[in-house]
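Hi support team,

I've been running sequence recovery on a batch of backbones for a student project. Most finish fine, but this one hangs at about 90% for roughly twenty minutes before it completes. I'm not sure whether the input is malformed or the queue is just slow. I've pasted the structure tokens below so you can try to reproduce it. Let me know if you need the job ID as well.

Thanks,
M.K.
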């Protein structure tokens, strides 16, 4: 059965923020950014909201019609400036930290570390985040959302890029044609993230 997908708008902001928070609350990277579980429960939704605002301003959000899954994408041009973060420029990470959790350097650090490993010089679609409601996982929703964009990438001869935040998600992305780029990013005293690239298919 197919998954009905539409572009999210401002009216969806609250529901999508809640979906992102629920899906990533116990993610290894989110747990590294917010090690204290109680603090994470309070502050994590603010970070998800900040990420969503940035992507809705600079990219697009695909949403399953029933609200069970979403994918946040940025279209990165070939002429992107080296060292500039995918969203918000060089000041973006500091501004997000100030707005979300000023006393937590990891909020800024995660953005800068991923920006440093982001491929340069070739236009691509960047899968910033993908979220599936905890009770709806393993139904193919995430795959449908990703393939929705990858089909267009293949038609337009565009590459795609992402960072997998767990070994499980890395395996899913490999099945969709992504391959690891160089070595995993090892967060200081934290988990691994796998930068992954997919060339368009004929």
């Amino acid at each position: 059965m197919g998954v009905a997908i539409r572009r999210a708008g401002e009216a969806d902001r609250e529901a999508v923020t809640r979906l992102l928070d629920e899906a990533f609350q116990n993610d290894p990277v989110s747990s590294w950014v917010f090690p204290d579980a109680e603090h994470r429960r309070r502050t994590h939704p603010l970070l998800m909201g900040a990420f969503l605002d940035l992507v809705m301003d600079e990219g697009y959000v695909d949403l399953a019609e029933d609200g069970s899954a979403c994918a946040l994408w940025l279209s990165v041009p070939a002429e992107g400036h080296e060292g500039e973060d995918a969203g918000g420029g060089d000041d973006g990470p500091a501004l997000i930290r100030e707005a979300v959790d000023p006393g937590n350097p990891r909020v800024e650090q995660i953005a800068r570390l991923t920006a440093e490993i982001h491929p340069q010089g070739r236009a691509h679609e960047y899968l910033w985040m993908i979220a599936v409601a905890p009770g709806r996982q393993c139904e193919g929703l995430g795959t449908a959302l990703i393939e929705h964009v990858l089909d267009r990438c293949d038609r337009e001869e565009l590459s795609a890029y992402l960072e997998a935040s767990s070994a499980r998600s890395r395996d899913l992305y490999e099945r969709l044609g992504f391959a690891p780029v160089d070595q995993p990013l090892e967060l200081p005293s934290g988990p691994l993230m796998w930068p992954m690239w997919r060339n368009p298919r004929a």
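--
Follow-up from support: It reproduced on our side and the slowdown came from queue contention, not your input. The first helix runs from residue 13 to 24. No action needed from you.
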